[in-house]
Amino acid sequence: MKNKKKILLTVGVTVVGLALICGIFVLYMFAEPKVKTKEIPEWKWGTEINPSGKSVATRGEITTFAEDGCYTWWTNALALRYVGAKDQTYLSYVNEFGQMSLASYNHETGTFAFNTLADFETDDHNSAAITVLPNGKILAVYARHSKDKVIRWRISDNTEDITSFGYEQTIPSEGMVTYIQIHRISDTEYRIFYRYSMSSWSTRVYNWVEDTWTDEIVWLYEPQGKQYYLWTQEDKQEGKINVFMTAHPVNGPDQNIRYGYFDQNGDIYTTGDKFVGTLNKEDVLVPNPRNFDIVYEAKEGEHTRLYDVSFMGDEVAVMYGVGYDGYDSTYYYAYYDDAKSAWVNNEICKSGEAAVTGNMYFGGVSFDKKDMTTIYVTRRNDEGKFCIEKWKTNDYGATWEVLKVIDTAEKRLETIMRPIIPYNTHDDIDVIYIKGVYPTYLTYDTDIVFYADK
After folding, report:
1. Is the predicted pLDDT of residue 41 greater than 70, yes or no?
2. Are the beta carbons of 122 and 443 closer than 8 angstroms?
3. What angle do CA 87, 42, 139 make, to 5 degrees?
4. What's phi and psi for 290, nearest 5 deg?
5. pTM for this prediction
6. Are 421 and 368 in contact (CB under 8 A)?
7. Chain segment 240-256, per-residue pLDDT in tens
């Protein structure tokens, strides 16, 4: 009888304990985030903006940057300009043979240089994140597309020169990794964000002077599983790094577009400075997407795809697509209206059929890095052919003007997609994009080209 009472008591304590744990979890999920009042310092580590110097380019024409190349949007930065002893734009991509590659273009001489960082499987998702260190050397950080648990990095032997790199170094992760996004956060440090174990995102900090990494911190976890995507973008004017996020458009459980940001101390917030968590230590309960405010609330059956985040401008903005399948979608421009304390979502245009309908690989849209009023749109025209156009808005996307049709595919099977604009871009390069035959992200016959207005 005593044993029976002891068993019943043990069971009762266990049940109560489980109930308390569940209650704490529910309170965490639905509690209002804390609000912190703070002054916003200038983010002095952001990308430099240099005026365009000497130019030998022929503007108004399409120029090939890299033959047989492709890239994914989820790596940041893919393209950037650095002005030191030289004035060059650097590009990261993966060629048709799986070689993780770099290219550079010298604006003063019109010459190109190329090099291979690593040789993996053909997969355009393997492109490296690149930046230029304060000493002028190029840092490339990269990972395979969720194929292993390794983060890799290499540093160029010489300043402003991609033709020779030091040996590849590695640091292990606890989960499968992909999609490196890198940002400078101090004189000596760079923070990377990367997808971790498909449904989570992690971060760690690299000290380039000491050549060391901090421990891995998982800071975002999607409890419903499936692949989850996000895009980080520095906002030098506001002293923070903005982040927008959404699930995989095909099978993700949460198709809402959500917003947050990180301050210089590594704290995580969402709209209205509501505190969510920290990047500096792993919480017992890791923040999940439902802790972040909704920018666009997806309707039943809708699928979303994130495209780009504003870099320069007076408001934070994002562009994304919404559709029900791979045969059409609508591009949107959303910005945060401080006066209304609300997100405003404005339609841009229809995308037309995706290049790869099963993956919903639509052409996509990107902000000009010089301001948030000019965008580049890739879509199918009335003939069903892909084209890339330059658009302009003076009212945050409420109305639009098509300034120019830059390029049009010769046939329906030719793809024009994924426009990107280099950070600190030169007037020689308005936009970079992919052009060619693109059946899948594993099998492509595409070139990377660029264009600039006369």
Report:
1. no
2. yes
3. 40
4. -70, -10
5. 0.90
6. yes
7. 999 999 999 998 999 99
Once rounded to an integer, what is the mean pLDDT over residues 268-284? 91
Q: What is the dihedral of CA 5, 7, 12, 14, to 10 degrees?
A: 160
- DSSP single-letter state for residue 125: G
CB 325 within 8 A of CB 294: no
Q: How many residues would you count in the chain?
A: 454
Nearest one of 238, 275, 268 to 39, comparing CA atoms: 238
Q: What is the mean pLDDT of residues 206-231?
A: 95
Averaged pLDDT, 212-228: 94
Do the Cβ atoms of 378 and 347 come closer than 8 Å?
no
Q: The tokens of 14 are what?
A: 């266990």
Query: Would you state the torsion angle of the CA atoms of residues 326, 330, 333, 337, taken in this order, to the nearest 10 degrees?
Result: -110
- State the DSSP H helix or E strand holding residue 215, giving kind and residue range, or none if neither: none
Q: How far is CA 312 from CA 208, 337, 341, 368, in A?
A: 27, 16, 20, 8
Whose CA is closest to 407, among 379, 445, 365? 379
The answer to whether residues 404 and 412 touch, using CB atoms and an 8 Å cutoff, is: no
Distance, CA of 247 to CA of 159 (rounded, Å)? 39
The Cα 332–Cα 412 span in angstroms is 24
Residue 282 CA to residue 220 CA, distance in Å, equals 10
State the distance between the two ends of the chain, measured CA to CA, in whole angstroms.
Answer: 93
Look at the block and give the residue holding tokens 């992690």. 202
Question: What would the two tokens of residue 209 be?
Answer: 């002077």
For 353-368, the pLDDT digits (tens) are 999 999 999 999 999 9
How far is CA 452 from each of CA 53, 204, 358, 386, 432, rounded to the nearest angstrom?
15, 37, 33, 19, 9
Q: Read off the amino acid at residue 126.
A: N
Nearest residue to 435 (alpha-carbon basis) of 444, 446, 420, 421: 446
Which residue from 372, 359, 337 is spatially nearest to 418, judged by alpha carbons?
A: 359
Q: Which residues contact 413 (CB under 8 A, 6 or more apart)?
A: 437
Side-chain half-sphere of 100: how many Cα atoms within 13 Å? 24
What the block records as the tokens of 127 is 């492109």
Beta bridge partner(s), residue 93? 101
Name every residue whose Cβ is closer than 8 Å to that of residue 343 and which is 6 or more positions away in sequence.
259, 271, 293, 294, 295, 296, 334, 335, 336, 337
In terms of C-beta density within 10 A (0-12 exposed, 13-18 middle, 19 or more buried), how is residue 126 classed? buried
How far apart CA 127 and CA 296 sit, in angstroms, is 29
> What per-residue string of b and e applies to 135-165 under the rule 16 or more CB within 10 Å gives b?
eebbbbbbbbbbebeebbbbbbeeebbbeeb
